């Protein structure tokens, strides 16, 4: 779900592509989310309610049914930036994620799915610069083929 602030209201709606997607998460992130859910469930019990099955991860309501105001996330990120010395914007984390995956050799189609790009060419357009290792591997593959051809002629 996308949480937006428009005309003085918080609006919860579809994401930009209007398509659901699911992503695999690493074990450390899953453990952190499980611990967070436990805390939210405890908070709900203390308030005499239950955590909503549709609870937002970032919520101050006892049952998790109301999302944070989008500006609250931006402000929290600003505080984190000050503590860590990070100079980027929140959106830059998305670019960092994609760039690291592509530079590690992940297939652009997989990165496109993680980013929610409907067309992998969008990913390639924005992140082609982030694939130097892919270019190095390509050079090595072609070099190997040429070496094999040269050895066959000898």
Write the layout of secondary structure elements.
Layout: E1 2-6, E2 9-13, H1 27-46, H2 70-84, H3 90-103, H4 108-115, H5 120-127, H6 132-153
Antiparallel strand pairs: 1-2
Helix pairs in contact: 3-4, 4-5
What percent of residues are in strands? 5-15%
Read across the widest sheet, the strand sequence of neighbours is 1-2
Rg estimate, integer Å: 22 Å
Helix-strand sequence: EEHHHHHH
Kindly, what is the distance between the CA atoms of the first and last residues, rounded to a whole number of angstroms? 62 Å
Uncertain residue segments: none
Helix content: 55-70%
What does this structure look like?
- By secondary structure, this protein is mostly helical.
- 56% of the residues lie in helices and 6% in strands.
- Strand 1 (2-6) and strand 2 (9-13) form a beta hairpin.
- The radius of gyration is 22 Å and the shape is elongated.
């Amino acid at each position: 779900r996308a949480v937006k602030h428009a005309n003085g209201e918080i609006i919860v709606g579809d994401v930009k592509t209007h398509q659901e997607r699911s992503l695999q998460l690493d074990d450390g992130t899953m453990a952190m989310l499980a611990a967070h859910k436990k805390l939210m469930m405890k908070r709900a019990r203390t308030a005499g309610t239950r955590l909503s099955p549709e609870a937002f991860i970032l919520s101050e309501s006892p049952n998790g049914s109301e999302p944070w105001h989008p500006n609250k996330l931006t402000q929290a990120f600003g505080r984190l930036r000050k503590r860590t010395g990070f100079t980027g914007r929140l959106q830059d984390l998305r670019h960092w994620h994609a760039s690291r995956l592509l530079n590690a050799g992940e297939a652009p189609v997989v990165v496109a799915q993680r980013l929610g790009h409907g067309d992998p060419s969008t990913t390639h357009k924005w992140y082609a610069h982030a694939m130097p290792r892919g270019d190095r591997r390509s050079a090595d593959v072609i070099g190997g083929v040429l070496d094999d051809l040269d050895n066959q002629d000898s």
